[in-house]
């Protein structure tokens, strides 16, 4: 039976990378099984075979395996795999190299300006969408005397139209882009539900829920088809027309 622990001692005396023939490995550990010469999986970077179990445990990996020439190359990896038995099975645990916390903080600091810039972009998109929705509503509700519009605010409704000091039109605008084109994420669905619930508090009004494009509209109608009731869902790209 081959003694694979002998290969551990061999690796401890090497640096960087090693090119070695199977015949040389056999001189170190003893005769290898026939499967080592026939199947690449026997030398894969997985601790399912005894030689690679020793190799990975000591922070090495293999590459450039050549079963025709019976050669293999081992190189030092950045990860060390500790193989510990549990319930008669081998489990692989990976100990990654230590990362300098200072480097992580420096990277965070470098990305904060980008995060702030993205926040401004989102506010601009929403504000422009609200103004487009307002133009559309003014075109089809010319009887409305006064309009109240909120830009960049999460509190209250985005658009409210008054006639004789009473709310007669309410509008909410969402610049949500669904995941995967037509699927709302959990957080997106929760936020949209919150907006729809706000509109239901105005019973005797014309209610409009604006979303950016038709794909987003389909996602909203699919997710809330039983909750829209008298709320009209409109895609701004499809329905808004410039004032004449």
Brief overview, please?
This protein has 244 residues and is of the alpha+beta class. 40% of the residues lie in helices and 25% in strands. The strands form three sheets. A five-stranded mixed beta sheet has the order 6-7-8-9-10, with helices on both faces. A three-stranded antiparallel beta sheet has the order 1-3-2.
Which characteristics define this entry?
single chain, 244 residues, alpha+beta, Trna Endonuclease, Chain: A, domain 1, 2 domains, 3-stranded antiparallel sheet, 8 helices, 40% helix, 25% strand
Draw up the topology in text.
Blueprint: H1 5-12, E1 17-21, H2 22-29, H3 34-38, H4 50-57, E2 60-66, E3 71-76, E4 80-86, E5 89-95, H5 101-140, E6 146-149, E7 159-163, E8 166-174, H6 186-199, E9 206-211, H7 214-223, E10 231-235, H8 236-239
Description:
This protein has 244 residues and is α+β, with helices and mostly antiparallel strands. The chain has 2 domains: 5-95, no CATH class; 101-239, 3-Layer(aba) Sandwich (Trna Endonuclease, Chain: A, domain 1). The protein contains 8 helices and 10 strands. It has a 5-stranded mixed beta sheet, with helices on both faces. The protein has a 3-stranded antiparallel beta sheet with strand order 1-3-2. A two-stranded antiparallel ribbon has the order 4-5. The longest helix is centred in the middle third of the chain and has 40 residues, at 101-140. It is elongated and about 100 Å long. Mean pLDDT is 83; it is low at 80-96.
